[in-house]
Design brief:
Number of helices: 4
Shape: globular
Radius of gyration: 19 Å
Structural class: alpha+beta
Order of helices and strands: EHHEHEEEHE
Helix content: 10-25%
Length: 196
């Protein structure tokens, strides 16, 4: 099976959302693994890559021939209709193994809390210039860091021999990851990890 490792160099605070809060203190907490380490879910990453490939295909980029989106990611499902898988399986993006291993030992565990910050924001009433009532919101964010995500082929699906090159061509279209990307969170640079 052909596989590659994607490096995601996140350059600003980011929020891999869960849709959950932490009671009265934070309205949104981040997605973390059982080890307490931040991770970007594979389904989220796959969606970002799919969107980038789709846009490039619609714009007629020569690197992304017609049908690439469906070949790599499968057709979009419609209510009541079965779908077939695309070629690629995208795993969760996590900290590199050596970093995660260090944070798993007793000496590293106290460092995990340093990966997270709390971010608060409020709406401003334009007429008065002061904070609008009941608008304070808090969310947990993760510091800038580099994640790795294995991407591989699903057995039995029609191969696309140059899928790595096709994805690399659209990496610049994925400018950010996580929630609140339009507000400056999660600025990222994607590239393939050099193997060997």
């Amino acid at each position: 099976m052909n596989a590659a490792t994607l490096l995601i160099d996140i350059q600003s605070y980011w929020h891999p959302g869960t849709g959950r809060g932490s009671g009265f203190h934070l309205d949104a907490v981040t997605h973390a693994g059982p080890d307490g380490l931040p991770r970007l879910p594979g389904r989220t990453l796959k969606g970002l890559l799919r969107d980038a490939v789709y846009r490039a295909e619609q714009w007629g980029w020569k690197e992304i021939p017609a049908g690439t989106t469906e070949a790599l990611f499968g057709p979009l499902g419609r209510a009541g209709q079965p779908t077939r898988p695309g070629l690629l399986r995208v795993s969760d993006a996590t900290l590199p193994d050596e970093v995660a291993a260090h944070l798993a030992i007793d000496a590293g565990k106290p460092l995990i809390s340093g990966l997270y910050r709390e971010h608060f924001g409020t709406a401003i009433d334009l007429a008065t210039g002061v904070a609008a009532g009941r608008s304070l919101r808090g969310m947990e964010v993760v510091i800038p860091l580099t994640l790795t995500a294995p991407i591989g082929e699903i057995a039995g699906v029609l191969a696309v021999p140059d899928w790595r090159n096709r994805l690399a061509a659209v990496f610049p279209l994925v400018a950010a990851v996580g929630a609140h990307r339009a507000r400056g969170f999660g600025r990222a640079h994607l590239r393939w990890k050099e193997e060997g």
